[in-house]
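Lab manual, section 2.4: Encoding a predicted structure.

Procedure: take the sequence of the chain (780 residues), apply the prediction step described in section 2.3, and record the output as structure tokens. A sample record is shown.
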Amino acid sequence: MSNEATTAQAAQATEDTAGTEPPPRGLGVSLPAADTRAKTEGTFPYAADLWAEGLLWAAVLRSPHPHARIASIDTTHAREMPGVHAVVTHEDVPGTPVYERGRSDRPVFASDVVRHHGEAIAAVAADHPDTARMAAAAVIVEYEVLDPVIDPEQAFEAEPLHPDGNLIRHIPLRHGDPDAAGDLVVEGLYRIGRQDPAPIGAEAGLAVPRPDGGVELYLASTDPHGDRDAAAAAFGLEPDRVKIVVTGVPGATADREDQSFQLPLGLLALKTGCPVKLTATREESFLGHVHRHPTLLRYRHHADAEGKLVKVEAQILLDAGAYANTSSDALAAAVAFACGPYVVPNAFIEGWAVRTNNPPSGHVRGEGALQVCAAYEAQMDKLAKKLGLDPADLRMRNVMATGDILPTGQTVTCPAPVAELLEAVRDHPLPPLPKDTPEDEWLLPGGPEGAGEPGAVRRGVGYGLGMVHMLGGEGADEVSTATVKVQDGVATVLCAAVETGQGFTTLARQIVQEVLGVDEVRVAPVDTDQPAAGAGCRGRHTWVSGGAVERAAKMVRTQLLAPLAHKFGMSTELLQITDGRITSYDGVLSTPVAEALEGKELWATAQCRPHPTEPLDEAGQGDAYVGMSFCAIRAVVDVDIEIGSVRVVELAVAQDVGRVLNPAQLAARIEAGVTQGVGAALTENLRTPRGLVRHPDLTGYALPTALDAPDIEIVKLVEERDVVAPFGAKAVSAVPVVTSPAAIAAAVRAATGRPVNRLPIRPQAAVVTSGRDRLVRSAD
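Recorded output:
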């Protein structure tokens, strides 16, 4: 069923039940988010809105150089300024922060060496934000400026930028026969730019000292327990003396908050004994938080005369920037999915992640997978052209299915309906050509007032097939804990899974409604006094935290039904909860859930832990991932071949989702992911000449606006349930981000005949100098 049909049914159901009882509830309906009203009315508690008695304001001094030796730091003038309460540097940090998987390579403050532009040097707490900023500027730092290493290829031969060296990880994947060769060979060199996550809303935080010598941090954290552990290690405290309270998260497509101000904030609160607040400017956000890994990729594809893939060879080089962050995980994903959702009997991939003096790279939605998708799909277009085949036909001859083997040796056990997805977008009707409408209604590349002319516009159609892994990988312990309590007919869910815009709180309400038949379900605020639920990325909360909520709710269900079953001499398995009533198989028992719950307080705690995975071995082999999801996108673009402007006319999307749990929410997630991919394809590139972040603001960094968003047609959602996932559902937001840039690039290639080997696509890459054509579809 198409997503439009699913959404329309949900909308009709909502309309039909408006003003009646009971309201829509449970899984499979478009239950609205509980925080919608607070966000629209401006009462949602974002970190930037918080206040405390005796509040001080913080500011961070950041390095103006990408690489320099620190000769001295003089804080005398800053400390003597009226209104300044504290200045902290590396000398005031009692411990070393420890990040995910035990990494400790990134200090709170630079001490001897600055490794990237914007690295934190010192922090100030003062009684006014302007005073704090002036005091930070008054800290005198003497630098010995060094030549930065900005080319990742130079990092192999350069002097070590870090005590751990410049090489973070090397993965040599070996699969099949190294001597295998095809009848045809195509090669390509590809570059992927640095995309910023550009989080909505200010990155902000409030630190409040505790009487026991600890500290509470109020943050829009997406991984509160991970942030707590890093902070406790940096502060020299036991984890139970540091508490993270999660404030409202205004959306997240990456690691939401920047450690370069979280940790200084806590240190200042501990030093002054006062609450301290910091609200980062957009410039500080660009300088401090992580970005998508810029990547250099070299590919060689071998195929037989019929277009079947024989061997793929690739070299993948990720620019990690100054510190490791999640580069090891990103490289593993890039290497594992370097051949895409295609059957490749022989694969030989070399992958490296290296340190440079560029801004730090880290987790951004679809990390690793997006970069290789753009490259392997360009290779498939080259093969199709060389063989004289339709690009969709060539892909269809090679698509992966359930039971096939990844180049890592892992068997694809989850549903992999790649052929069905490709067929859906290929067969979807193409949008009408602008030449079929009045000229004054044409939408030309460059916008309504753009410089383009109809005679210079050519249309292209291109395809992209993408895949991502769900949850963490390579042995990561993906456990989550949830508690469900029911009292006075109201259910409460306690789970440290952070709502980042992915809809977890709505899903948790739907799960409890489905299992227990109660109408009112509340999700408690998140803090680190609750058991850990892990980071809010890679769809893990839908799977792991949703699974924990379901198990806890089922345990409460058993507590509720057991007395009734005993009274009527039957097992609880013979009772069911439907439409708010408890009924027996024979119809003897039929009672409202509210009546059965009256006067009772029931609760249960449960965990969900998927089956274990393993790290990739020295040959890049291993069952590294719990599950995968797939997407097919057909892009239609108009290109002005004289000025290189590109307008994405339509993106047709087909995706395997396992099971639709909330139709409207699912459609919104796919559309948002596709639009983020449009930015990666056409506009978003954080420029860092000689390691310096250029134009760190939203005027210099071009995000796609509503005018840039194309028509997004969700033409098919394949609901083939993954039997090992709770509810059978799959993550939905990352794979369209991964796939849409590759599809757009393919469409631009089709329109122009140019190779398009770089993302984002620069105007000069889409310019054709051979003359002007009529506006026609590239296949005409």
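Check your result against the sample. The first strand starts at residue 56 and ends at 62.
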